[in-house]
Amino acid sequence: MQICVSKIHRATVTQADLNYVGSITIDQELMEAAGIKPYQVVRVTSLANGTLWQTYALPGEKGKGDIVLNGPPARHFQPGDIVIILADAFVTPDEAKELDPTVVFVDGKNKITGVEHHKGIVK
Length: 123
Hints:
Layout: E1 2-12, E2 15-17, E3 24-27, H1 28-34, E4 41-46, E5 52-60, E6 67-70, E7 82-90, H2 93-98, E8 102-106, E9 112-117
Parallel strand pairs: 1-8, 2-6, 3-5
Antiparallel strand pairs: 1-7, 3-6, 4-5, 4-7, 8-9
C-alpha cells in the first residue's frame, strides 16, 4: 500500500526555476524534521490553484528556508504560493502499523513552528 509518511504543512514557495532539470529543493532542516530523504519522491500541492505535482526532493542549504520548484512545476508554483509537501512510501499492511507519520508545521518564512507524530493511527 502507498501511504503518506510525512508532510511539511503550509510551506511558502521561495523560488521557481523553469530552467533547472527538475525536482523540488527543500531546506535540509525541513527535510530532516520530516524524515524526507534526498531523491525521495514527494507530492507537492498548491493552495493557490490546487495543482498536485509529483517530483523528487533535493536538500537545500540548512536553515535558509528554501522551497524551490525546479523545471516544469515552475509553471504551476510561484514564489509566495503556499504548498503542502507530502512524502509517501510503499509499505506492507504490517509495516504501516509501525509507522510514525510526521507533520512539520512552518511559518511564512519556512521556519519550523511545530512537529507532530501520529504513531499508532494506522491500524
